[in-house]
Amino acid sequence: MMSQKNKNNNSLTNLSKFISLILRHSPQTIGLELDPDGWVDTQALLAGIHKTGKYQITMPILEEIVRTDQKQRYDFNEDHSRIRANYGHSIPVKINYPEKEPPEYLYHGTAERFTDSIREKGILPMNRQYVHLSIDIETASIVGKRHGKLYIFRIPAREMYLKGYRFYQAPNGIWLADSIPPNFLQDI
Ligand code: HQG
């Protein structure tokens, strides 16, 4: 039998997934619009989610979700009057991710069925604004398995950087790039 604690965790996870949907892809679902830099009014988010009738949400619950999120998916502004997603958007938003020199290698976990297309066209942002890259193989495995049978590409990020390609870092250590051309895909 599922414990109360698990039930609570599951419902917080579902709520967090819904918040991701709103803040990354589809704010119009609850009648919101993102600012150009991705922010929405926190009270409007709470009211909009409440109105769906699907989730119990209060400011303390939202603050707990933001604070405890394992991947730092969300941020409040200083006085918590606004909130945004830190990465993963499909909507164009202007978040000034710091451009940084990456480590020698980054990794991209994907599904085997995408690899022919990736070898041909490179790694593209697809529905998102950026390609998301992982700092290690373990993290890339988790990302890739979401899509099916895991395949991991190694990316010589430092070499690309020295050749003029830009890399950015989201607040949680996830690396972002505009795209990875086929000639920089390495098998591991
Ligand atoms: C693939 C999650 C065919 C790409 C994760 C990936 C991450 C291609 C899929 C973050 C392609 C897009 C992002 C091409 C790329 N042909 N397929 N040319 N180029 N692809 O979910 O990187 O938990 O948009 O390999 O953990 O999997 O939501 O990107 O398989 O951090 O916070 O197209 O989202 O974070 O899938 O994941 P996604 P992703 P959260």
Q: What can you tell me about this protein's structure?
A:
The chain has 188 residues and is of the alpha+beta class. The protein folds into 2 domains: 4-85, RNA 2'-phosphotransferase, Tpt1/KptA family, N-terminal domain (Arc Repressor Mutant, subunit A), CATH 1.10.10.970; 106-187, Alpha-Beta Barrel (ADP-ribosylation fold), CATH 3.20.170.30. It has 6 helices and 9 strands, in the order αβααβββαβαβαβββ. The strands form 3 sheets. It has a 3-stranded antiparallel beta sheet with strand order 1-3-2. The radius of gyration is 18 Å and the shape is elongated. It starts with a helix and ends with a strand. The site of ligand HQG has 19 residues, from β4 and α4. Residues 20, 71, 73, 88, 110-111, 114, 117-118, 121, 123-124, 126-128, 132, 143, 147, 174 line the site of ligand HQG.
